[in-house]
Amino acid sequence: MCSICGYFSYQKVPTRIVTDMLQKTEHRGPDAHGLYADGEIWRSRELSDLESSEKARVCLGHSELSIVKGGEDVIQPFRSCDGTLSLVHNGEIYNSQELRGLLSKAHTIEDKDNGSEILLHLIEEIYDGDLLRTVQSVVKMLNGMYSFAVTDGDEVVIARDPAGIKPVYYVEEDGCVYFCSEKKGLYDVEGEIQGIPPGKILRANKEGISIHQGVRIERPQIDIMDFDEAVTLYKSVLTDTVESMLRGLSVDKVGMIFSGGVDSVLIAKLISDFGWNLRCYCVGKEGSEDVNNAEKVANDLGLDLRVIYLDERTVEAVLPEIIESIEMEGLLQVEVAVPMYLAAKAASEDGVKVVFNGQGADELFAGYWWYKDVVNEDGFLKLHDKLWEDIDLAYDDTLEREDKVTMAHSVELRVPYLDRNVVRCAMRISPRLKIKSGEDSTRKWVHRNVAARVGVPDYTAYRAKDMAQSGSGVHSLVKKVAERYFKGKDVEHVEIEDKGSNYRYLNEDYGTPEMRAYMHEIAEDTQCLER
After folding, report:
1. Are 140 and 286 in the same domain?
2. Is the dihedral of CA 353, 358, 364, 370 positive or negative?
3. Number of domains the chain contains
4. Residues 172-211: pLDDT tens digits?
5. Rounded CA gap, 109 and 111, in Å?
6. Is the same domain home to 154 and 286?
7. Which of 2, 180, 280, 528 is catalytic?
8. pLDDT value at position 491?
9. What pLDDT is stored for residue 51 in this prediction?
10. Same domain, 518 and 388
11. Is residue 328 packed enough to be buried (19+ CB in 10 Å), middle (13-18) or exposed (0-12)?
């Protein structure tokens, strides 16, 4: 939705540092821009209008992607009614109207549909002079995806949502703390770039910086043991969640990253049932499993589908762009990003500013093939623990990548399966209901039955699907490109980092040495992974 950035310094430093960060991340918010500097605020439709030779101790920057009602008429940073607090926010607060009802009548709100403005007034309502304590109280009330920074002029407090859907990074240098939505905005700052962990809060003031607990993903007890109860409740919660994510949008159409698998088709069916103008995007080789399945189910459900076909030339050309966008070079990371990057690009070409995807369903309902091995070796309770581990790790190797790959095209991604209400519901369900008993041991059993109930055809609802990079044909195309590149050359051995559910269940390196080395060479050539 946006880019946020800024700094806190013991001494005044040039505000152009922040406008430079906004320039490097303008793709995240091309519609409007704003700057806060030691109590003064400037706003403009043109980023160049914010260029300044001013210096400040505290500076916040914001670039806006307008997708909510009224969003085109208000520009961040927002200032509280009494002028004490200022805020920049990236993301969406899905329960903002409920929170607006908690505010006293003393607040003057320019746009009652703007969750960012409501967030600031909620902070103002509770603020008692301790900004950290106030933010710690407020984040417990939020349902949404967010990273935001708020200042009272004496300190800056930065918070990140508990799932880690919206990233924010920081660097310490010579008594300053700099932060930005993407690493590339911090490359000119000396020091180690670190991410604020999901659910954590960073506080920067004259005493230094510190990391504090914000809000954790709720860990409910397993108390749904009946299959029909599980299906009925999950269907209701997921439907309400999709509706809440559509509510308040000013756009006239939305998109769906569409592989033809049960996860994406289920969300597409729900959006379509709400009467929205929906366009689905599928990326893959002509004749690939994903393309064939997507075309069949889209036709049967009457969904508008645009297919983006892959070949060696397309993949070779797009890999440098993807590595620069996601700020990662791991082979699996890059391959998985290819379909989403090209789908988001197509959506942007079509004027679509908001897309949905099916990320998270595999972690909630034991969709990956290796989860059956966990059950066979250690039992269902261990499976439940592993699912929680993978939900916690999703930000590190999945959510940050997907945020960047869509925002590279000024498109916001919404992730219904990782909404806090959906996660709470899914993790109340007994893990024994998630993998069907019997010889076939179908994974995501509750999830698949919900899909069937809302009208997803059985051939999709109950079909096992290959990994995205295989079903789309990306993996085989990258392999051909890499082997052609290294033909007759020595191949450098490249280690992969062992993190997240993408890697930690695999017993061997993913892909071939040529493929891993090819990703590394692209990263070196483009100099897009400076730190």
Report:
1. no
2. negative
3. 2
4. 988 899 999 999 999 999 999 999 999 999 999 999 999 9
5. 6
6. no
7. 2
8. 82
9. 76
10. yes
11. buried
CA 178 to chain centre: 22
Express the helix, strand and coil content of the chain in percent, nearest 5 each: 45, 20, 35
Question: Tokens at residue 318, please?
Answer: 């797009």
2 an active-site residue?
A: yes
CA distance 75 to 355: 23
Evaluate whether 33 touches 229 at the Cβ level (below 8 Å): no
DSSP collapsed to 3 states, 387-448: HHHHHHHHHHHHHHHHHHHHHCCCCEEECHHHCHHHHHHHHHECHHHCECCCCCCCECHHHH
Q: Among 182, 213, 244, give the residue marking a domain's end.
A: 213
490-503, pLDDT tens digit by residue?
787 766 554 455 55
Measured in residues, the chain has a length of 531
Mean pLDDT computed over every residue of the chain: 92
30: domain CATH number is 3.60.20.10
Which of 149, 180, 213 is the last residue in one of the domains? 213
Q: Residue 498 has what pLDDT? A: 43
Does the residue 13 lie in any domain?
yes
**For residue 442, is it within any domain?**
yes
Query: Do residues 80 and 119 make contact, with C-beta atoms less than 8 angstroms apart?
Result: no
* Same domain assignment for residues 116 and 250: no
Percent with pLDDT over 70 in the chain: 93
CATH number of residue 503's parent domain:
3.40.50.620
Distances (CA, A) of 148 to 26, 77, 196: 17, 11, 11
pLDDT range class, residue 72, cuts 50, 70, 90:
low
Examine the domain organization and report whether 81 and 127 are in the same domain. Answer: yes
Other C-beta atoms lying within 10 Å of the C-beta of residue 376: 10
- Looking at residue 103, the DSSP 8-state letter turns out to be S
Amino acid at 1: M
Give the Cα separation of 386 and 392 in Å (integer): 10
- Quote the CA–CA distance of 287 and 284 in Å, as a whole number: 8
- Whether 379 is covered by a domain: the verdict is yes
Is there a single domain that holds both residue 201 and residue 118?
yes
Please check whether residues 338 and 208 belong to one and the same domain.
no
Q: Residues 112, 251: one domain?
A: no
Contact assessment for residue 1 and residue 65, using Cβ atoms and an 8 Å cutoff: yes
pLDDT in tens, 47-60: 988 877 789 999 99
pLDDT tens string 117-155:
999 999 999 999 999 999 999 999 999 999 999 999 999
**Domain membership flag for residue 219:** no
Task: Answer yes or no: are the C-beta atoms of 402 and 344 closer than 8 Å.
Answer: no
**Domain range for 271:** 227-463+482-526
